[in-house]
Amino acid sequence: MNQVAEPWPTALDYDPAAKILHVSFETGERFALAAEYLRVESPSAEVQGHSPSEKQIVPGRAHVGIINIEPVGNYAVRLIFDDLHDTGIYSWRYLFELGRDHAPRWETYIKALTARGLKREP
Fold this sequence. Notes:
Strand content: 25-35%
Shape: globular
Low-confidence stretches: none
Order of helices and strands: EEEHHEEEHH
Radius of gyration: 14 Å
Largest sheet: 3 strands, antiparallel
Distance between the termini: 34 Å
Number of helices: 4
Number of strands: 6
Mean pLDDT: 93
CATH architecture: 2-Layer Sandwich
Helix content: 25-40%
CATH topology: NE0471 N-terminal domain-like
């Protein structure tokens, strides 16, 4: 995998109709990240727990959107979702990793939902 010392965003734009966050980095990489994906991969302790074994599988977020994006210093943003989840601080590095690793992370999420008999729809 491509390692970037400190990924730095050049653009961050949310499309509320499509519920997609577009992020571009100075390395040239661009990612289109669905709000649902960002919500279920929130870096918050509520979702991630305090260790990998504590990670929560969040079902029923297929229609979630982002209602606000707040800067956190110059290293991250807080995404506020319309289900009122607002405790995740998305560092530039984490957004880069979410984009870079989208396919395997999404596949793992879908498999975890299926294994627990859960659905993406509310």
